[in-house]
Amino acid sequence: MTSMDSVGLRSKFLQEAAHLLAVSSPAASAFLGSARDRLFEDTEQGIPAKDWDALRRETCGACGNRMIPGWSCKITTRTLSGVVVKKKPAIPNKSTRPEKNIVLDCLRCRRKTIQSLQPRPSRHIRKSKSRVEAKSTLDLVQPTKEEENKVLKSANANSKQRKKARKGGLQAMLEKNKTNSSQGGLGLDLMDFAM
């Protein structure tokens, strides 16, 4: 077994043990979390930035506390719109969005961990030639006012027919209930015997 495998196994063990003890014994969980951080520092293992951010989201960098939102940490988002960044924009026509950050506030040691949120990619709607051509042909063939009036009248007639059918259905149900209740003998219901 190589040293990198043993470090990975130890790290995984410490992570799972800290996770299991997070609620029942927060102090022991924090100790195991800080031991895991020390393990990464001692071995000088090159952790990718994505994994490092994930590690900071799950354990506090100062005390090793397990970051459970609402239980051991508080999460807020903040937008940095007033900060002036002195970078040359790669694309000058691209609209600049304010940078959003997530702030993890450890409730054990009050350390604030700030991580930036990745912006969503913007959606671009492309118009194909067929859509543009279809739009131009639709503009040429416009319905006359008589056709529009026919459509409106038929829509009104359909809604009136639906209303009449609904009303007839409700009246039929009421009449059916009346006939059933008159045939029922004593006219008692289950709710009459409820206490």
Automatic annotation (TrEMBL):
Pfam family membership, one: Rpr2
Origin superkingdom: Eukaryota
InterPro entries, alphabetized: Rpr2/Snm1/Rpp21
Species this protein is from: Dothidotthia symphoricarpi CBS 119687
Lineage, opening ranks: Eukaryota, Fungi, Dikarya, Ascomycota, Pezizomycotina
Span list, region Disordered: 145-186
Identification of the protein by name: Rpr2-domain-containing protein
Any Gene Ontology CC annotation: nucleolar ribonuclease P complex
Single Gene Ontology BP annotation: tRNA processing
